[in-house]
């Protein structure tokens, strides 16, 4: 079974004995031996194994990792980690005097420079900023100004509060997101997630006169989930 062989493959690739990996996972060596042979681990153990090796459950369960060349394996794992936010992405932010994160405002005018400056702390620090005490303090938020009529009933010029999305595989079908891409800059659309299967997002407008289009994950720079609109 692919899952069992993957557990053994990853353990050996990391240079671990069954005893050392079992200890790290909080299970017995005999249980781990069974998982490497033909026993399917319970879900909580699967999650711990995936987290320990920094891979997704999809890859752990479905891919035959031992069949990959070293280059292809590294490419697969690095892509998976990047899409899920495990590899470093720079998110520039600002804080107040108490160290609490502020909400930066990206106007229609600032959108033109945002693609080049989104990871530049100096650029972000120069944006207007404020705070909203009712928003969760453990999430990062940013305000974007809507441009155009593609997302009616949210009108051109409206302000939308969005929450930073670290794990792109968690983007939910049919929900609204601000997607920052290399090609289109800052775009507000309804997203359909094809990241896991095709490494793409399908982006649709609420206004049917605008056709849907696909964006490659490699073109994405930031994702922000729509939370509320302010006129």
Could you describe the 3D structure shown?
It holds the Pfam family Peptidase_S24. Keywords: DNA-binding, Transcription, Transcription regulation. One of its GO terms (molecular function) is DNA binding. Residues 7-60 form the HTH cro/C1-type domain. It comes from Algoriphagus boseongensis. Helix 1 (2-13) packs across helix 3 (29-37) and helix 2 packs across helix 3. Strand 7 (200-204) and strand 8 (213-216) form a beta hairpin. The protein starts with a helix and ends with a strand. It has helices at residues 2-13, 18-25, 29-37, 43-52, 57-62, 70-83, 108-117, 121-125, 195-198, and strands spanning 103-106, 129-130, 141-145, 159-164, 175-181, 185-194, 200-204, 213-216, 220-230. The model has no long low-confidence stretch (mean pLDDT 88). A 9-stranded mixed sheet has the order 2-1-3-4-9-5-6-7-8. The protein is built from 9 helices and 9 strands. The chain is elongated. With 231 residues, the protein is of the alpha+beta class. It has 2 domains: 2-83, Orthogonal Bundle (434 Repressor (Amino-terminal Domain)); 103-230, Umud Fragment, subunit A (Ribbon).
């Amino acid at each position: 079974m692919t899952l069992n062989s993957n557990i053994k493959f990853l353990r050996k690739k990391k240079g671990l004995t069954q005893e050392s990996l079992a200890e790290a996972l909080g299970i017995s060596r005999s249980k781990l031996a069974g998982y490497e042979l033909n026993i399917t681990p319970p879900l909580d153990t699967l999650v711990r194994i995936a987290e320990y090796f920094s891979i997704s459950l999809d890859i752990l369960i479905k891919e035959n990792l031992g069949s990959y060349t070293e280059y292809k394996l590294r490419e697969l794992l690095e892509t998976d980690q990047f899409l899920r936010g495990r590899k470093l992405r720079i998110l520039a932010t600002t804080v107040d005097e108490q160290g609490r994160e502020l909400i930066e405002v990206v106007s229609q005018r600032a959108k033109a420079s945002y693609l080049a400056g989104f990871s530049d702390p100096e650029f972000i620090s120069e944006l207007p900023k404020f705070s909203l005490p009712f928003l969760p303090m453990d999430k990062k938020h940013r305000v974007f100004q809507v441009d155009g009529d593609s997302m009616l009933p949210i009108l051109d010029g409206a302000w939308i509060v969005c929450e930073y999305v670290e794990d792109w595989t968690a983007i939910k079908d049919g929900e609204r997101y601000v997607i920052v891409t290399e090609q289109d800059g800052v775009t507000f659309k309804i997203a359909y997630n094809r990241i896991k299967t095709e490494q793409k997002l399908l982006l649709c407008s609420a206004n049917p006169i605008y056709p849907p289009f696909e964006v490659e994950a490699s073109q994405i720079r930031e994702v922000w989930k729509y939370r509320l609109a302010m006129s």
